[in-house]
Structure formats: C-alpha cells, structure tokens
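Morning!

This is the sequence you dropped in the shared folder:
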Amino acid sequence: MADYYGHATITLAATDSVNCEGGMLYPSSLRRRFSASRFNHWGSTGYAFLESTQTDLKNEINSAPLNQRGWVLQERIFSQRMVHFCKKQLIWECKSQVASEDGLVVLNKDRTRPSFISKPLYPARAVYEDWDDVVQGHSGRLLSKARDRTLALAGATTRFRNLLYDKHTHRHDAPRLGLWEGDFHAGLLWRGRGPGGRIEAAELKSIPSWSWMGFDGPVAFDTEHRGCFRSPRKIEMVMKVNCVDVKWEGKELTSKVKYAKLDVSGIVIPFSSIPKTTDEIWWDSLNRIEKYMDKNMFLLLVAQVPYRSVWNSEGN
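The structure's back. Tokens below.
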C-alpha cells in the first residue's frame, strides 16, 4: 500500500461517498452571488467583492464518510497529492498545503494531518508525537474486520520505523503492538476516549491489555505532559522496562500475534489512596477501572512530572 499510493502522481478520493456506489461528482454548491461595491481611487474605478465563508477544511475532510474508514488513513498519509471530491466543493491536498476550490481557504499541511512520512530529519521525539496523532486518528475509525486494527497500520508502522534510526547503535526502533521500545513509557500513558472495553474478537485475544490495539474504541495520549517536542515540561520516568517482546505466527505486523510479554518493575500504589480526578491523575479510564476492577488492586507508577504524579492502570 505504501508503494502504491506513495508513487502515484495523484490520488482521487470520493471523500463524501458512503460506499463504492455513491459516486464522486456532485452539483456545485459554491455561492455564485457576491456583494460588490464600486469605489474610486486616484481617478480609477474599482470594485470590491465580499464573500463570507464558513469553510472548515480540516473538519470537512476528516469528518467525511470516506475518512471514517480505517484503511483510508494510510492511503491519505502516503499519497503525494490528493483531490477530495466533497459535496460542497473540491479540496486539494499535498505535502505543503490544503486549498479549497473557492480559493478562500489555504491551510498549512501540518494543520490538517500528521506528516511524519515526509520529514526524515525530524528529531525522534517529534516523530513519536506524530505517531500519537496517527494512532488517535486510526483508533476511532471503522473497520470491517477486527483483525484489520493491526493490519491497517502495518504500512505506516514500517515507514515510521525507517525514520527512527539511531546512527550510534545502527538500529531502528522496534514496534511493539502500536507502541515503540524507544518511547515505551510515554506510549503506555494512553487511555480510552470513550466507555469502550476489550475487543472480544477471537483473532485479537492475544493482544495484551497494555496495548491500545486491544481496546475497542478511540484512544488518546497524554502528549501535553510528555516533555517531548511540543511541550517544554520534563516528564520523569519512574517505571523500569526490563523486557518487552512480541512474537507473530507469521510475517511481522500482518499475521496474528502468537504471544506478547512485558516485564516491568517499579513503585506500586494502592488504588484506594490516590486522587479520583483526571486533573490530578492520568487514567486509562477511571470509570472503567471502578466498574470492572477490584478496589483492592495496586497501580504501577509509570512516570511523574514535577508538580503532579502521572499513573497508568495498564501496568498493574
């Protein structure tokens, strides 16, 4: 998929079509009426045209039916140039900008979707945060088969791994079921954005609870306090990762997971002794913990910031 879309000159997307029979050509709904004012300036006559716009290109693209599908995320990331056929108008999207058919809105590319694929000189911490954006976008999309939750990110994972090369150790970072060894502490600080729960599909039974890939619903990361590229705050890692390993039944990333192992050590805290507000603690999901888990359990302290502690329930 990466080569197919990455080497295409242009990708045409039926963005507002609900299925393969929905078509992609719609009657133009662009306004044809303009408010015009005549004025004189230094002896010359001119006209000023005023047209109001309510165009939100980012929302118009991201909320469209096509972009609710899980597989489409990779297609959009890898494509060099795209034309979105929307009901309101055509929208152009390339590596540098997004522009509307009416000519009223032009957005910098970074404001519409992650672009780590085209930025090999980015520092690793910034690439990890781009990955967070990809995961947050992917996890909330629709998939026909539960197993596609891992398959639909295989191409992006491979390309991402190529960017994460350490010239000192001469090795690439290793993907671990949607997380990365080089960013594993921060990766564990994910949580569900909805009620959600474990995916019950048999083909995903071997996905461990510490991976967001086993969660049935959209997820979010605590990027605000990671102390990485977008935030000056320094996060202090407390938990120690002794070993993380994933074995596949066949080809890595595209076959079923045979088994996954995570060995960590650190400080554990009684559930009953910690604050119960998300303002003071970063939870996987407080409501889910209270509903499904034993109140006598202990939580593993993953990381903390200077002014407050940050825990994650997945390591208990």
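Headline: The CA atoms of residues 138 and 303 lie 25 Å apart.

More detail when I'm at my desk.
O.
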